[in-house]
Amino acid sequence: MALDEKNKILFEHLLAYARFSVKDLAIILEVSKATIIKRLKFIEENDYISRYDAIINWQKLPFIKKTYFVKVDKENEKFEKLMISKREALAVVSLTGFYNYYVWCFFKTRKQQKEFEKNLKKFKYEEIEINKLVFPKVTFFDVPLKLPLPKIKTKKVNLNKISVAVMKYLANGHGRDSLYKISEKLKLPYDSVHYNGKKVLDSDWFFTIIAQAGANKFTLQTTCLILQCSDKNSAKKIYLELQKIPKIQSVAIGEESKIMVHFLSQTHTEYRETLSEIISAHRDKIKEIIITHWDKILLSNRYPLEYFLEG
Question: pTM above 0.85?
Fold first, then answer.
C-alpha cells in the first residue's frame, strides 16, 4: 500500500488536525474504522508522519518570547550543551547558513532575559522578539479538507500538576495519543487524566495539534528567514499576506519591524519558487533578509508550564 488517493486524504487531514477521530476519518473516506486504523499504521510505520505535536497557544503564555540566531565558530558541542541546560530555552536547532544555531526562549522578566544574553556576548547573533505567531495550514498534495477544523475555544482553564503533565506529554510528539494511553504513560489515574485532559483539549490552551511530515521520507528541507521590513505598517501587511502561501509552516511578527518565516520544500525548484513568492511581492518593503536552513533539532517544545503552578 503506497500513498494512494485515500492515504493522501488521510495524511492531509492529519497535517491539519491530528486528533480527528477514526470514526470521522472513516466516514469521509467511506471505509471501515478497521481500514482507517490499518492505513494510519501504514503511514506512521513507513515514516510519512514522524510525530504528532500539540502546539501550545503562545499568545496565552505571559512571557517575553525571543529567538536568537547565533554564529558559533568553535566548541559547538559545548554551546549546544549550554543552551539545552538553560531552563529558558523552548527549542534549540542547529542550522546551515551564516548562523548555525537558533534558540527559542521564554523569559519571565527583562532581568532574566539580560542574564541569558550574557551567554551570547562572545558570539555574533541576530534576535527577534516575537509578538504574534501563527501556523497556517500546510499542504503536500493540495487535497481539500472534508472535515472542519475545530474552532479555538476561549473557555478559561486553570492549570494544575496533572493538566500540565498532560499538556507537556501531548506537546512532545504524542498529540494523537488517547487519554487512556496518556494515563498509562504518565502513570497517573485515568479519571484524573480524562477530566483534566478533556478540559485543556476543549479550551484554547492548544493553538493546534498537527502531524509532522517525515523529513527523510519527503526529503524535506525547513528554511527559516528573518525579514527586516522598512516600517511597522509594511511588516503587518507582509505578515498577513505570508499566511496565504501554501508551503509556509509558521510566520511570526516581532519588534522592530521584523518577521520570522519557516517554510518547507521537497525539491530545489520548490524552494526557489516559495522563496521567490515570499520576496518578490514585497521586495521594495524588505530592507534585509537572512536565510538559514534547519540541520538537526536538538531540543523541541520544552514549554515552561510549571510557571502557572508556582506560588
Answer: yes
User: Is the backbone of residue 257 left (phi > 0), alpha (psi -120 to 50) or beta?
Assistant: left
List the one residue out of 122, 128, 121, 133 whose CA is nearest residue 102. Answer: 128
Beta-strand relationship, 221-229 and 286-299: antiparallel
The identity of residue 236, as a single letter, is K
Residue found under cell 527586516: 228
Q: What is the pLDDT of residues 71-127, one digit of tens each?
A: 999 999 999 999 999 999 999 999 999 999 999 999 999 999 999 999 999 999 999
Residue 248: count of CB within 10 angstroms of its CB: 23
One DSSP character per residue, 163-203 reads: HHHHHHHHHTTBTT--HHHHHHHHT--HHHHHHHHHHHHTT
Rounded CA-CA distance 150/204 in Å is 11
Q: Which whole-number Å values give the CA distances from 239 to 39, 132, 257, 286, in the listed order? A: 37, 10, 10, 12
For the purposes of burial, counting CB atoms within 10 Å of the CB of 13, is it exposed (0-12), middle (13-18) or buried (19 or more)? buried
Query: Would strands 206-213 and 49-56 be described as parallel, antiparallel, or unpaired?
Result: antiparallel
Which of 84, 66, 68 lies closest to 76 in space, CA to CA?
84
CA nearest to 162, candidates 202, 205, 194, 184: 194
Strand-strand pairing, 64-71 and 101-107: antiparallel
Residue-wise pLDDT tens digits, 267-288: 999 999 999 999 987 889 999 9
C-alpha closest to that of 140 among 15, 297, 237: 15
Nearest to 220 by CA among 293, 146, 134: 293
What is the rounded distance in angstroms from the CA atom of residue 282 to the CA atom of residue 241? Answer: 10
Q: Are 283 and 142 in contact (CB under 8 A)?
A: no
Closest by Cα among 111, 162, 155, 89 to 309: 162
